Amino acid sequence: MSDTPADPMVGRLIDGRYQVRSRIARGGMATVYLATDLRLERRVAIKIMHGHLADDNTFKARFVQEARSAARLAHPNVVNVYDQGQDADMAYLVMEYLPGITLRDLLKDYGRLTSEQTMDILEAVLSGLAAAHKAGIVHRDLKPENVLLADDGRIKIGDFGLARAVNNNTATGQALLGTIAYLSPELVTRGIADARSDIYALGIMTYEMLTGEQPYVGEAPMQIAYQHANDTVPMPSVRVPTIPHELDELVLWATARDPEQRPRDARVMLDQLLDLDTLVRPAPAASGLASTMVMPGGLTTAVAEADTQILGAAPLIPAGGVNDTPAEAPANSTVLTENARKRKHRGYLLFALVLILAALAGGTGWYFGSGPGSDVPVPSLTSSSPENATSQLTALGLEVALGTEFSGTIPAGLVSSTDPDSGTRVDKGSTVTLLVSQGPQPITLPVLAGLSSDAAAAAVTDLSAGIGATDSIFDDTVESGLVISASRESDGGDVSQGGDYFQGMNVNLVVSLGPVPDVSGETVDDATAILSDKGLLATSGEELYSDSVDAGDVIRAAPVNEGPVRVGDTYSLTISRGPEPVVIPDVVGLPWNEGKQALTDLGFKLSYNLGADAIAALLNVATTDPVAGTAVEKGSTITLKPTNPFG
């Protein structure tokens, strides 16, 4: 019996839809479970954020945003994201379930991979990553643990979106060490990342697949980070001499310390990999032999260093192993003799081909006449001055033309892009156009105040600008859902009535939630419920006397905090104590009419013998009931008696 405690999540129904079956894996940010989608009757992988992260509102907001970005990536080499939500205190992400292993598991089992296996995996990963880069998504956490190898042969990238949503403080110990092994120099030194940072991580992964080792090791994460920032990744062939030099060059290109010297994105690197494919992969043998052969231990140096080895019709070592019957395999000397004869024949053909190419190219060798040496990759010149960019292209044997374009990211006067794009291989002597930034393209925003939030967003995005922050507040004068005001994100300038701006920059909107309901005269419970329906909180405030509001009801409600009122704000309720009591003044001894007037002026009603009123008018007030000094409600009745006229 296992000592592992039962996971409380197993068996739980999440959001009324996903039945958790078993735990698959646990990481530094989340735990992944196998679950059944009861609605669609399919198996899924559900990733549940750890509690200390799910409680972070900033993390949850980024998690939702990145989950939506990952869900847009419909690509066969990217793990599909089906759903995202919140169940009680748990933030979760529902993904495609792929039974199989990770690239890390494969490397643990086999140490290193062949060049062909490496290129197959690299092609699949680059294809998925190219789709992400095209959509503007940077993975930021590429490593063998996030490359999934399904049982049916599919290769997919996982964990899109999670790397962005976690700050540097969330990874510690081995998790941090594993991530640092693939961090680009700019992430180590400046904490910034773009598509080229993913390329660097992929270059490190390629090195590891080819050699079975990471290029940089150390006892502490900082040691590894220092090497990334200051050292150059060695060629894989230094560890494994049989690795083709084309793959050496690919790794060095992808892991250049300067991001400008790397492929611009995964598509550029994928195109180059496909170009290398025919150079690196051996042509299939006519005999139909397997691609992997066991070489004998006694090969001569000349044979071992030959460019191409051709094996006979049977393996040098039979499939059953070295203990099989010797008669079943030809002697090594016979095989080597046959190999030498074939190499000699092929050598004559190659020599003849070189002579022909040399004659056609005026003495230029095959490699520089029609092979890869005849063209050069366009370097990345983004943010370079036109003069510096021109010098670099001229040194590569390329012609230069100048053009202009608007750019929201590159300052005016610097190179914003090239035509052809950086990384594209072109013939020497070709013309490369340097497109110099003119800064962002000016636009004129229309009147935004009074539009619905959707209409305002459409008006802005149609001009190739963006919507930044949207603030929703209560407003007594603007209908719910309409824009109250708009401002430029760059400088806060008001553009509610339209104005000048630039493409690629964001506009902030303030949208009305309508007026706050008037709860005057309502009971405290009713007032609290009315405000709650609008997302507002209510708290009991001071109590005041009121002639118009019954005791216990709300006189008025006012926000606790100054400034615009937003959902979640608190209102203080002023509660009525009813009419204020009035103290009966002392009118005893006053002339009858004067005492009556004093009491009626205070709102009291009077009771007296009307028949004697005319006579009493000549007398004084003898008594009041209630007596003077008694506090009674305003409007109460006071009984008056005059003095006895007869003494």
TrEMBL record:
GO molecular function list: ATP binding; protein serine/threonine kinase activity
EC number: 2.7.11.1
UniProt domain Protein kinase: residue ranges: 18-274
InterPro entries to which the protein is assigned, alphabetical: Kinase-like_dom_sf, PASTA_dom, Prot_kinase_dom, Ser/Thr_kinase_AS
Catalytic activity: L-threonyl-[protein] + ATP = O-phospho-L-threonyl-[protein] + ADP + H(+); L-seryl-[protein] + ATP = O-phospho-L-seryl-[protein] + ADP + H(+)
The UniProt record lists the keyword rRNA processing: no
A Pfam family: Pkinase
Keyword Transport on entry: no
Domain PASTA: from-to ranges: 373-438, 514-577, 578-644
Residues passing through the membrane, by range: 348-369
Gene3D superfamilies: 3.30.10.20, Phosphorylase Kinase, domain 1 (3.30.200.20), Transferase(Phosphotransferase) domain 1 (1.10.510.10)
UniProt GO BP: negative regulation of fatty acid biosynthetic process
Keywords: ATP-binding, Kinase, Membrane, Nucleotide-binding, Serine/threonine-protein kinase, Transferase, Transmembrane, Transmembrane helix
Protein name: non-specific serine/threonine protein kinase
Species of origin: Cryobacterium cryoconiti
Organismal lineage: Bacteria, Bacillati, Actinomycetota, Actinomycetes, Micrococcales
